[in-house]
Amino acid sequence: MKMNFAPSLFSGLALVLALTGPVPQAVAQSAARRPLEGIWRGQWPAATGTQEVVLTVVERTGNRLAVLDADAQNLRRVPVRTALRADSVFFDADRVNQHFAGVRTPDGQQLRGTWRRGSERQPLTLQFGGVSEALQRVLVAAPPYQAEPAAVVAPADNARLAGTLTVPEGAGPFPAVLLLSDFGPDDRDARRGNYQLLGSLADYLARQGFAVLRLDDRGVGQSGGTASTSTVAQRAADVTQALAWLRTQPRLDATRVGIFGHGEGGNVALLAAAGMATPAFVIAAGASGQTGAALLAAQPVMYGKELGCDTTEAARQRQRLAAQARAKAEANVMRKEGANAAQVETYLDQQRLRQKVADRKYLDASFKHQKAMLEIVRQTADPALAQTILTNMMRQRYPNLDPADVQTTARQLTTPAYKDFLTFDPLPALAQVKCPVLLLFGAEDQQVPPAPNADLLLNGLKANKLAILRRLAGVNHALQAPEDEWLFIDGRPQPLVSPEAEESLRDWLQGLKF
Q1: Is 404 exposed, middle or buried (0-12, 13-18, 19+ CB in 10 A)?
Q2: Residue 16's closest CA among 75, 67, 69, 84?
Q3: Which CATH code of 2.40.128, 2.60.40, 3.30.70, 1.10.10 fits the domain covering 7-137?
Q4: Regarding beta strands 282-285 and 38-46, do their DSSP bridges make them parallel or antiparallel, or are they unpaired?
Q5: What is the pLDDT of residues 226-242, one digit of tens each?
Q6: CA 272 vs CA 86, 258, 269, 276, 348: distances in Å
Q7: What sign for the dihedral angle of Cα 460, 463, 467, 470?
Q8: What is the distance between the alpha carbons of residues 432 and 467, in angstroms, rounded to a whole number?
Q9: pLDDT tens for each residue of 316-341
Q10: Which has the closest alpha carbon to 101: 77, 84, 118?
């Protein structure tokens, strides 16, 4: 069983701490004498052989937590209460009704006892597997860096952009990374529900010895200015200013200050690198190689949220499921009437092809609709007139949408920032980028697909012998790990930054020759 623990788990494990609660003082003292921290593995007897169970235990002053993984039961990161009484150890995964009571062997390498799953009881020995380096990074009581407030004054409009500077412990001087968010207003962590891409990357990079600066976008959090008027060129000028500020910090190495940009932030980083910013390096993750209009027209959801998932879309999904059910029923009838396996499979293949054609037709219509809307935005100078036309177009295609939602979207599509992004072409400036560049793409990115964007960018950087491309299997646009690697808290999945993405950043940065 593969256990993936990344530093971005820190906040998720803290949630587990809140669920498990403090350990009584006597138990904490016992734990101090006989720590359980680490990975414990055992084999649960089953009718089909054995099933592996894995308990990962964390100990902190006055607190202890554990999580249970059991692939055969589809259990991942299930919170577990722990207790020590004399020489006995107790694990209770109440949410899945599984419990262990046992005794630790004198050498400390095994826990021998009984595992109870519902009404079943079986003897079980848990073998100590040590504490991995990745686990140790996650479980430190305090992060090995300092986080302090920071601010940069934007040159175009004198907006104060507030954020956080994270500096590793020690004297330095440290290399530094400026983090840039994707298109649209974001806070300094690029927070999306429980997922914080930039906040997690700041934690990870600081643990690798890099200082990190991340800022609230205009009009977000503690930053001034207005997000709706922020252009790509304005953001690139902000980057130049932020890099200059980083180079003045006494604990940082002015010759090793670079940029990580996500989505549009990656394009901003490349544009800044082609101008006056002169970063030591650029990492562009999920950046576009197309004009904004071409990119948005081909996205499954152009609007930035699932506007299409109203009752109209729900009805379409019901029709798809009904068609699949009819096909299965007809296949059963064919079998009863004597059709052989090849005939049944041919029929099912025909139905799948018919559904695939229908889905393609629907997507083509969506893309055509989106392209037409973008042309209205691009060609209509009067924002009020453009909003009226867009509102009518959305209502015609999605008649059951909330009118207030439609109006809000129409306003967003006609902001100066949106219109500027439509006309932005990332390719012309790439020939001027001289610093090392890492283009990072998730193979499952649906918002900025690797094809054609990765190849377009790499071709634009062909004169730069220090530019490379890496594709990450199973990773989406948000650089999230595949869902089967997510942490589960209170039965709910908590998305994680892909460990492969983090390791790609680390390996590439460590290989740079400044």
Answers
A1: exposed
A2: 67
A3: 2.40.128
A4: unpaired
A5: 988 899 999 999 999 99
A6: 62, 11, 5, 7, 53
A7: positive
A8: 12
A9: 677 878 888 899 999 999 999 999 99
A10: 84
The whole-number pLDDT of residue 64 equals 66
According to the model, what pLDDT value does residue 399 have? 80
Kind and range of the H or E run holding 32: helix 25-33
* Tens digit of each residue's pLDDT (9 = 90 or more) over 153-162: 998 889 999 9
CA gap 508, 280 in Å, rounded: 13
* H-state helical runs in 252-310: 264-274, 292-297
pLDDT (average), residues 276-288 = 95
| Cα Dmax for the chain | 83
Looking at the predicted structure, is the pLDDT value of residue 19 above 90?
no
**Shared fold status for 7-137 and 147-290+426-486+495-510:** no
- Number of C-beta neighbours around residue 191 at 10 A: 15
Strands annotated E in 218-302: 252-262, 282-285
- Any idea which of 31-35, 170-174, 305-309, 453-457 has the lowest mean pLDDT? 305-309
Residue 30 binned pLDDT confidence (cut-offs 50, 70, 90): very low
Span 10-15, average pLDDT: 32
Distance CA 464, CA 480 (A): 29
Give me the residue spans of the domains in the chain: 7-137, 147-290+426-486+495-510, 311-421
Alpha-carbon gap, residue 456 to 450, rounded angstroms: 9
In this prediction, residue 275 carries a pLDDT of: 92
Residue type, 185: P
In this prediction, residue 306 carries a pLDDT of: 42
* Residues 6 or more apart whose Cβ sits within 8 Å of residue 466: 434, 435, 436, 437
Q: Flag whether pLDDT at 95 surpasses 80.
A: no
Question: What is the CATH code of the structural domain delimited by 147-290+426-486+495-510?
Answer: 3.40.50.1820
- Nearest CA to 369 out of 419, 309, 301, 420 is that of 301
Half-sphere exposure of 256 (CA within 13 A, CB side): 18
